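Annual report, structural modelling task.

Input specification for the adenosine-5'-triphosphate complex:
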Amino acid sequence: MPPPMDGSMSESVVRVDGLVFDYPTQRALFDVSCGVGRATITALVGPNGAGKTTFMRCIAGLETPFAGSVTVAGLDVLAEPRRAHQHIGFLQDFFGLYEDLTVRQCLRFHAAANGIAKSRRNQAVERVAELLNLRSRLDQRAGTLSRGLRQRLAIAQAIIHEPDVILLDEPSAGLDPEARESLSSLLRQLRHAGMTLIVSSHILTELEDYSTHMLILRDGRVVEHCPVSGEEASARRLRLMLSDPVDNLPERLMRHFGVGNVLQADVVPTDGATASFDFTGDLNAQCTLLRDLIGDGLPVAALAEEQRTMHEVYRERLRADGPAEPDRGAA
Ligand code: ATP
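The model returned the following structure:
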């Protein structure tokens, strides 16, 4: 079984080991392993049919895998589903509401279903209604809510029991820009309150707003699992510009401490050359690197940090992973 790709298994609030899931006609997950750290937001991304929904349903204990295990907050979701569910909030991509109940009744029902004691239910409803900005709607029937408000109610229902882990499958589908923005700030707020979120979406620019990690699935396999926000990312990407091309630039760069993954070295005879690479050192180490590169005789014109968007990392990793399997859907 391969080790988890982010190396954070020991402190993980969600642990997935060697997960294999089969539908009657096809295998959807192939030996998936990963660990998700507490109070992080993981963007779960991948082409259509990659296995994101199946993966989330397995974490939520709603599917029985062919092999492997999932633990949430230290509980095996298959062996102890009821206890595990107390730690999980799940918003499915397609959800139903009890249309004839008021928002308050929906929330009270979910509070009861999630085992919140009768004496604490009102307080739980008030708290979550405040968080989701639903206070003024408490006496409105769910069936009369707009799409954005329905989404907010569904999230409120999913988190009323203050779970450790929240799984959100395409939570912003169908929301207007303002509602998307308030969803982003809500997710950041939940993370700051100590919750761990896994959010699946195809809108990478939006995920970039709040995600700390990115987990890329393709054809049922983990292609990448890495930190993406500045505070979490272990390597920065630097871009070097030279006034004249030089031979063996990637090899010459790789000799230096902290340099890795030289993915690109474009030689443009009239404009010199550029290369971009991962660098694990801090600013002092970058200063040393610059001095060493000049000392090596490289005609350095500039060395600066390169900001890569989540979308660029995503495309780069899928490209490096090769073409998708021909018989499976890929966006
Ligand atoms: P999307 O981005 O389109 O929502 P996804 O990444 O969530 O896709 P899944 O819905 O998990 O992917 O599907 C993974 C694979 O399993 C796909 O090839 C899909 O066709 C297949 N699949 C999903 N549900 C079933 C099912 N009920 N029966 C058979 N195959 C299924």
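The pocket of adenosine-5'-triphosphate is lined by residues 23, 25-26, 28, 46, 48-54, 328-329 (CB under 6 Å).
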